[in-house]
Amino acid sequence: MPALEVHPTVRIQAGPYAAEISPSAGGRLLCLTYTDANQSVDCIVPWQGREAFEAHNWPKAGAFVMLPFTNRLATAQFNWQDQTVTLHNGSPTGQGLHGFGHRRPWQLRQTTSHSAELALMHPASDAEWPWPFAATLTYQLSEAGLRMELSLCNTSTGVMPLSLGWHPFLPHSTACPEDQGDYLVHAQRQHAIGLDGLGLAVASVEPLPMQCFALPTEQAGTTAFEHYSGTVHLPLTAPWRLEMTSQNAAHLLVHTPPGLKHLCVEPISALPGALKQDLRTRNQLGLGPACTGTLVCTLGLQALSLPMATAETLPRSP
User: Fold this and answer.
1) Which residues face 184 on adjacent strands?
2) Contacts for 206 with CB less than 8 Å, ≥ 6 apart
3) Cβ-contact 95, 73 below 8 angstroms
4) Cβ-count burial of 131 within 10 angstroms (0-12 exposed, 13-18 middle, 19+ buried)?
5) Which residues, at least 6 apart from 308, have a Cβ–Cβ distance to it below 8 Å?
C-alpha cells in the first residue's frame, strides 16, 4: 500500500476553536486547538510532521475514525453467516487493526468556514472487506467545541457486520485532580483486555446496574467499559478538563500506553473481539442492505476553578 500523504489539509474555525483535517491521510483530524487572549490549549495531541507516512505505522497523534470494524481482530479472520471471512490488510502483525478507513484517502465533498464533509467509497468487494459501502465523515466546530459524525451505508445486497469507533490521542495530564469523583467512567462492567488489546470482552447476557470505575490513567494497559454512560471527563492542564460525549457508541475503550505520554479514549459501538464471539453477539453487528449505521462524538473544554465572572464567558462543552 502506498504511503498516505498528509497534504493538502483543510482548516476550520469557530469561536475559540480551530481544527486541521487531512482528507488524504485517512480523513484524520490533525489538531484541535482552543485559543483565547491568554493561552492556546491542545485538545488532542497535535500532529507535528507533515511528511507522508506508512499506512500501518502512523504517528501517535491526531484522531481517526475506525470502520468497518474497531480495535484488533486477531488473525484478521472471523465467521459470518456460516462462512469464514479472511481479510488481507497487509498488517505486519497479521491482525486486523481498526478496520481500514483510516488507511485510505477520503474525498473532500464540501467545506464551510466551520465544517468539512468527507466521503469514502468502497464500491466493490475486495481482499480487505467483502461488502461494498459508502461512508461519510463530517467535522463541525462551534463555540462549544468539535462534533464528529461518521455514517456508513451498506450498499451490498446482503447483511454485513459493522462496528464504528473514534480513536483520538488525548494529552495525558500528570496533575492530580482535586475532585477525583469528576474522573470516573460510569458503565455496567469493565473488562481488562491486556496491553496488546487482544483480549476478548465478552458482553453480558443480561443488563447490569451502572457502576463507577476509576479512569485508568496511571498504569499501562487497555480497558473496555461495557455500556458506558456516553460521557467521560479527562483531566487536562489546569484550569481545564476535557469532556467527550458519544451517541450510538455503547462502549468505551481506554488504552494507556507505557510512558503515559497520551491516552487513547475510544467510543466504540461493539466490544473488542465481538466478531470472534458467539452467534448472538455477531448478529447484533448486522447491518442490512441500504441501511446506515451512525456514530456521533463531541469533544470540548470545560473550565475549572475559575472566578464566576470569567467562567460565564467560557463556552460550555457539547
Assistant:
1) 214
2) none
3) yes
4) buried
5) none
pLDDT tens figures, 193-227: 987 777 778 888 888 999 999 998 888 999 999 99
10-311 CATH = 2.70.98.10
Task: Tell which residue, 136, 139, 168, 141, has the closest CA to residue 242.
Answer: 168
Helix (H) / strand (E) element for 310: namely: helix 308-311
Grid coordinates 466490544 are at which residue? 271
Residue with cell 487493526: 97
CB 230 within 8 A of CB 265: no
Residues 93-108 have pLDDT tens digits of 778 889 999 999 999 9
Report the alpha-carbon distance of residue 188 to residue 229 in Å, rounded.
Answer: 9
Q: What is the pLDDT of residues 238-285, one digit of tens each?
A: 789 999 999 999 999 999 998 878 999 999 999 998 998 877 788 889
Cα–chain-centroid distance for residue 150? 10
In 3D space, the residue among 15, 26, 29 whose CA is nearest the CA of residue 106 turns out to be: 26
**How many angstroms separate the CA atoms of 59 and 49, rounded?**
9
Q: Decide: 114 and 264 in contact? Cβ < 8 Å.
A: no
Q: Which of 165, 98, 157, 103 is nearest to 130 (CA)?
A: 157
Strand partners, 194: none
d(CA 128, CA 87): 5
DSSP assignment of 142-206: ETTEEEEEEEEEE-SSS-EE---EEEEEEEPP-S--S-GGGSEEEEEEEEE--TTS-S--PPPSS
Report the alpha-carbon distance of residue 165 to residue 66 in Å, rounded.
Answer: 5
Phi, psi of 37 (to 5 degrees): -70, -20
- Residue 293: what are its φ and ψ, rounded to 5°? -105, 145
Q: Read off φ and ψ for residue 168, nearest 5 degrees.
A: -90, 145
Please choose, from the candidates 262, 265, 296, the residue with its C-alpha nearest in 3D space to the C-alpha of residue 48.
262
Which strand (E) or helix (H) includes residue 74?
none
